[in-house]
Amino acid sequence: MELFERPGGGENAVLVQISFNTAKSVKDEKEFIELADSAGARVVGFISGSRQRPDPRYFVGTGKAEEIRQLRELRDANLVIFDHSLSPAQERNLEKLLQCRVIDRTGLILDIFAQRARSHEGKLQVELAQLKHLSTRLVRGWTHLERQKGGIGMRGPGETQLETDRRLIAERIKQIDKRLEKVQNQREQGRQSRKKAEIPTVSLVGYTNAGKSTLFNALTQAGVYVADQLFATLDPTLRQVQLPNQQEIILADTVGFIRHLPHDLVAAFRSTLQETIDADLLLHVIDSHDEQLTLFREQVNNVIAEIGAEKVPQIEVMNKIDLGGLTPHIEEGTGTTPTRIYVSAQNNLGLDALLEYLGDYFAGHMFRGTLTLKPQHARFRAKLYADKAIQQESITDEGNFSLNVIIDQRRLEQYLREENLSLDDL
């Protein structure tokens, strides 16, 4: 049973977006409408405006609040969505005035995440964020919740319904925290196993709808769900990718970032975002055709810094070059700018160059050379074959195996330790 039920047929919504104190304030009407669409709302009205600062009672002024009320009645809307964070009191005051449900940007994004979560972990993370958000909004204008429970079958141990609800939510949050801790430990074991295997991890990051999942599918043939909508991917997916130099990497597809990503979500999804924190390299996927790419780049880097991954090396993958008439190419980075690789994941342009670049990037971790193994080292030779590390093999006059090898340096050292050997012996 879902904690938060939604109407089956969608809802008519009026959107409200206000600019504060500066003409340079980002009024991204298109993204706000896309967010509402992604949640399943039917946008029947859009109200914008500007103020010096939020009004403590209605967030907007009384005149603007009345304008919203009239438009809501005119368009028969049953939901008003603000592209801002509202206080619980502002939400309640607006609901009383507008006579309909009111949600803010955080509530909207939480709703989208609730619809997108597929894995057990993802659902727990979304519910945790929802409960934390809800716990401050329990009264929501329903004054009967503040009264003492009474009547036959309703007499309680002396606490109000509101206190009961708060206690139940607190208990549920504790339960979810414990379950997520178990899942996080399992993820950590997986990460440690990959570290022992010395397989580099490359994490895809980027603004939502930049094409990360399309790129992920093109490189891995994983069949991850792709849609032209915000937050199509929520649960992380990991796949092994073979690079042209025979090295393997783990590629991780992660949730897209967005400006003003709710802090509760960042905190709840910390275990998921750990794949980004622990990565050896970030591929920052950017929609090269988007006129706001500079802003989006900055927003993504802000979230990367917020989760503690700002020191992870980064390469920018400029995606969707087919939409802007660009050709695949590579711009080497400088001290202040990262390397940029121009591709079209949708049309498979520039992906070979991307894989080759990754191969060269991790080549510092590779051993390339000839190993001479005696017949008694058959187990070592079998491991090299299992890793597809042997490029060519011949038999010497002494009956030994001469192997032309390309293998991860650290994995080779691990095998040598297991066989009590050193490179000098070979």
UniProtKB/TrEMBL annotation:
Residues 166-193 form a coiled coil. It is found in: Cytoplasm. Its cofactor is Mg(2+). It comes from the Bacteria. Keywords: Coiled coil, Cytoplasm, GTP-binding, Hydrolase, Magnesium, Metal-binding, Nucleotide-binding. One of its GO terms (molecular function) is ribosome binding. The keyword Membrane does not apply. Its main location: cytoplasm. It holds the Pfam family GTP-bdg_N. Mg(2+) binds at residues 213, 233. The keyword NADP does not apply. GTP binds at residues 206-213, 231-235, 253-256, 319-322, 344-346. GTPase that associates with the 50S ribosomal subunit and may have a role during protein synthesis or ribosome biogenesis. Belongs to the TRAFAC class OBG-HflX-like GTPase superfamily. HflX GTPase family. Monomer. Associates with the 50S ribosomal subunit. This is GTPase HflX. The gene is hflX.
